[in-house]
Amino acid sequence: MNFPRSLTAALLSATLLSTAVSAQDEQSEAPDANTVVAKVGETEITLGHMVLLHARLPDQYRELPGNVLFQGILDQLVQQALLAQTFEGDQPAFVKFSLENEERSMLANEVAERIIGEALTVEAIEAAYQSEYVANGAAPEYNASHILLETEEEAQQVREELDGGAQFAEVARARSTGPSGPNGGSLGWFGNGAMVEPFQEAVKALAPGEIGGPIQTQFGWHVIMLNETRTSDVPPLESVRANIMEKLRQEALQKGLDELRESTEVTTEAAEGIDPALITDYSLVDN
């Protein structure tokens, strides 16, 4: 049956109006992380999945136009879902351990950021500045060199070489694993708070020309030589803010970890006797 032209137009108009109202209703609620953007079989892909995949993209891809990037990320997630749905059998060991590591790391980072965020207040930064810089008046600065090594035994061997007359810069170029090694171990000038605390304290205890160590930090084992010292004026807060904030971060995180260790039973005896080389044996998780 042929509808009158006016009725056809009316029906079409009603359909369009209904669609527009429906779309308006759907868009009345702002999309959030749980908003489903696609379904692949029974698998839902959400806006949250897209956001996190975008966060891991290399910088060059983030420069693409938004619509191109959106569609590319969506296509990738759909393709992954299609492939993943065809997997049969038990979950591979490497997937299980990777997911556990990823979850542990993300949750740990979240808690660490909360601990650090509570410590990095305007008041704490100002108090640290007053205590470490203003209260001491003119601040000492140090010019030092170091040789970074992986083990205490290696560091002790290097110390013995230096005590026997070897040139510090030459040994640093030959043995140091740190980025300053090719430059003879030179760290240039730095003030209080610029280095991690064990290193800073070791430098402060030396006289110019004296060698110290080995000492251990989270970076490894260090043999240190203090080249010279000087005194500088009190620096403005903005010039040392980054150093203060880094120190507050380290202190807050270490305090938080110490408190957690005190309240949690931690045992590592089961690791004793295991060959360290096994951590490079990927066949252990390749099944």
Automatic annotation (TrEMBL):
Domain PpiC, residue spans: 139-228
Keywords: Isomerase, Rotamase, Signal
Any one GO MF annotation of this record: peptidyl-prolyl cis-trans isomerase activity
Keyword Ribosomal protein: no
Position of the signal peptide: 1-23
Name of the protein in its database record: Parvulin-like PPIase
Organism annotation: Poseidonocella pacifica
InterPro entries the record matches: PPIase_dom_sf, PPIase_PpiC, PPIase_PpiC_CS, PrsA_foldase, Trigger_fact/SurA_dom_sf
Catalytic reactions on record: [protein]-peptidylproline (omega=180) = [protein]-peptidylproline (omega=0)
Documented EC number(s): 5.2.1.8
Family assignment from sequence similarity: Belongs to the PpiC/parvulin rotamase family.
